[in-house]
Amino acid sequence: MSEVRLEGIRKAFGAVVALDDITLEVHSGELLALLGPSGCGKTTLLRSVAGLEHPDAGRIVIAGIDVTELGPRRRPIGMVFQSYSLFPNMTVRQNIAFPLEVRRTPHAQLTARVDELLELCRLVPQADRYPNQISGGQAQRCALGRALAPQPEVLLLDEPLSALDALVRTRLRDEIRRVQQLVATTAIYVTHDQAEAMAIADRVAVMNHGRIVQLAKPLELYEAPATPFSATFVGSRNALELPIRGGHVKLGAAFDVRAPEGALDSALVFFRPEDVQLAREGDGQPATVELRIYMGAATRLHLKTEIDGRPASLDADLPSRGAVDLEPGATVRFRVDPEYVQAFAPEA
After folding, report:
1. Structure confidence at residue 1 as a pLDDT band (50, 70, 90)
2. Does domain 237-344 have CATH number 3.40.1360.10?
3. pLDDT of residue 166
4. Between the CA of residue 276 and those of 34, 221, 255, 257, 331, what are the distances in Å?
């Protein structure tokens, strides 16, 4: 069952097309991430679902009801903003209670619901504090509790973690996912952080220039990007343009793959740094270590090689224990399993 259905959504701001014929279904109970760079249209799409933007064309259906012409307050949604938007003169408890008070919820029911959300969002110790007396992570959990208070059909989250530092962001990401699954609400989550999207979402919609270029589960998106943009944006990948000869694309002795359909003289080739393997002497493609970066369990090597006499650079991620002796200037040989190489025809 689809909780949210978007049909042919189009939105332009003057000559700039922000949304270009978006059609999308969000299933009941799932968390769908809208992922893409700044300006790709993801926030405009979320704001259209919320009723904060009105599409120039198309239809928005939530829980079986056409809400295209309804204002935000008449839509069965809750929204969590990047900036929290808490009322500074209200305590955490009062902020969470506010949407229930607006709806004139009976006092006993309101109190029970607020207590439930304080427990769910792990805010009981902070219940009587004001926003300036709690941390950024606690403030965002308060905003989440307030959005969930009226039991919305759909929860909308617009870059909710971008204002937090890395450690808090990771913890709160997991908290949001925990709460969303416990209450079994449908959620749409906007982010430009691919690691965040992959960790939290049931499915990810990758957006670029107002379009959805791929919609897939995180594992599928990571393992099998369907477009050059998806391959570039999702995961850290090496990207090379290689010549086609005899229907094949080769990187020296490192790999040999069949040329993609539609490619004539060259192909765009992508492969992940962790799929680069060091080869034995006499095997693989020769390269020189330009830089070594220790990243804990893995060490990243920036490698320099040659393709038809032209210099090319790529990254290799190796277990740190096996890379300890590879100083800049060292000569290595590498290969990549063709199974892990994606080749695309160059985009027009």
Report:
1. low
2. no
3. 79
4. 30, 19, 10, 15, 15
Max Cα distance, the chain (Å): 79
Mean pLDDT computed over 41-69: 96
Helical (H) or strand (E) element with 142: helix 136-148
In the block, tokens 């902070």 appear at 126
| CB distance 234 to 225 below 8 Å | yes
Q: Got the DSSP string for 326-347?
A: --TT-EEEEEE-GGG-EEEPPP
Residue partners of 218: CB distance under 8 A and separation at least 6:
197, 198, 199, 201, 203, 204
CATH 3.40.50.300 range(s) for the chain read 2-228
CATH number assigned to the domain covering 2-228: 3.40.50.300
Q: CB–CB of 55/35 below 8 Å?
A: no
Pairing relation of β-strands 31-35 and 203-208?
parallel
CATH 2.40.50.100 residue spans of the chain: 237-344
What band does 2 get if pLDDT is binned at 50, 70 and 90? low
Distance CA 229, CA 248 (A): 22
Structure tokens, 192: 């430009």
The predicted pLDDT at position 85 comes to: 86
Q: Contact, 19 vs 210, CB < 8 A?
A: yes
How many C-beta atoms lie closer than 10 Å to residue 166's C-beta?
8
Residue 203 near residue 216, CB atoms below 8 Å: yes
Apex 279 CA angle, 274 and 282, nearest 5: 155
Q: CA 104 → CA 68, 97, 108, 110, 165, distances in Å?
A: 26, 10, 11, 9, 37
Tokens matching residue 176: 């949001």
Average pLDDT over residues 325-348: 91
Residue carrying the six token digits 């906007």: 190
Q: Percentage of residues in the chain with pLDDT exceeding 70?
A: 99
DSSP reduced 3-state for 14: coil
How many Å from the N-terminal Cα to the C-terminal Cα in the chain?
38
**Cα separation, 252 vs 305, whole angstroms:** 9
